[in-house]
Protein 1
Amino acid sequence: MKIDLHSHTYFSDGQLSPTELLQRAHTMQVDVLAITDHDTVSGLEEAHAYQQTQKRPLTIIDGVEISTAWQGFDIHIVGLNVDCACSDFQAFLTAQKERRRQRAEKIAEKLSKCGFEGVLEKAVRLAGPGQITRAHFARVLVNQYGVSSMDSAFKKYLGKGKRAAVKAQWPAMAEAIEAISQAGGQAVLAHPAHYDMTTKWLRRLVDDFAQAGGHAIEAACPGMAAAKQSLIRELAQAHQLLASAGSDFHFPSRWTELGRNLGIANELTPIWHNWSQLPVDKEAL
């Protein structure tokens, strides 16, 4: 059984619609897919509606990826099996949307000083019904202002410490974990190997995450080196965290694909080990 618990649509910084994402999941023979857009659950309704028209079974997990602040780092917390109707949870996401709007305006002001006039309107138009992210600004710079690549847009303008970088006022990690828990979900520390921090700081992060009531850690994601896999496995066991697996899929590419290379070590307990909505065979991956 193929399980992928981290993916994005164009309701945040992915490039596929929820329908197109599910079509891709079916093509890749994924059996369980969590849709985890940044700070929004807006794509889930379309996803469920499309799946109801399909003959091939696929279990959709209602999810979200929440941006948080911890010790000066931007840390992402995935929420799985969240109740989207929870009023407190919806209020939390509304606040996140406002934080994104404020950051977008500040980014646009800085890009204007770099010679890119009118970029906010173009980024908002590109984002459409979804959350506006730095990726939308990067795509606008590439598509309409001659910047050579997305990577170049971040390295020259949007990345940490660059000319148009804006530090978002994200909530504390513990607040996101509480919001997810209030919605009946499980909080997962997303892509722990991708943060630009030392092993000492990563240990502190995982400890604080567990102390705040976090449930699981992404122990399988694309491109994780063997040494990092071993460290994440050690930290998961030390803090009695469940193990999640996710591709962090945004669009088809040679580096990431839905359901690919997401095996979890046998000594870890998968987050889905007691999920009632899964198919009968739970020996996944």
Note: The beta strands are 3-4, 32-35, 59-70, 73-80, 186-189, 216-220, 242-245.
Protein 2
Amino acid sequence: MKIAILGCGSIGGAVAVGLSRCGVFRTSDITVTAGHASSLDRFAGLGFRASLNNAEAAREADIVMISVRSRVVKQVVEEIRDALDYSRQIIVSMAAEYPSEELLSLFRRPDGSVPQVVKVIPNTAIEARQSMTFLAPVNADKEHLEQVRAVFDKAGKTLLVEEKMLGAGTTLASCGIGYAMAYVKAASEGGKRLGFTAEDAVRIVAQTVQGAVSLLEMRDFRPEEEIDKVATPGGLTEKGLKAMEESGFTDAVIRGLTASAI
């Protein structure tokens, strides 16, 4: 399978690297594009095919992934539309905010034909093959949707949702990477105050978060139960959690998520 990723910014680049690490796709089967040659140097050095020509990159691909800002989507579609074979190629749009109907309209040819289109929202953890990726079919049938899902299943976990839920997914998972890192940063600062070096503090917090995730996966995703196990009455954890809540911890998290909701 050949994949073209049009736009190698933070998400497109992470997708390329993550897929290349899953043991299924060769870097030579993944083409990445950019508007400037300097943006492609890293990827060419890693063995990816790199191109400044979106139409050329898209022509040979089985799956064409559009990973550019919403304001550039129209330009990219107009560049690649005539180079595509709608009978065999699948379009993946990673432009979460771009309206689906408008996207299909851009692809529609004079004979009324449009390609199979799926909206996909991964997060930057896909580079480490740990993305929480959301998929919503725009007009794709089950067969083509499953083909796309199989690709992203190789680089984390996927969830099929209605398109109206993609904004919420972006907030919780894509923005969530930043929020999780903010917790790691804050907890690491606390570790430094407790006497650890900055480097050790980050490692301790990162391993603790990884351990917490592993416990959730083992225990059917019930965080309340895991909290109860360590927060014994009058114990250190209970005191810490109480202090956090007095400072508005839960409310701050919810307000942050709400503020970033699309």
Note: Residues 166-193 form the longest helix (28 residues).
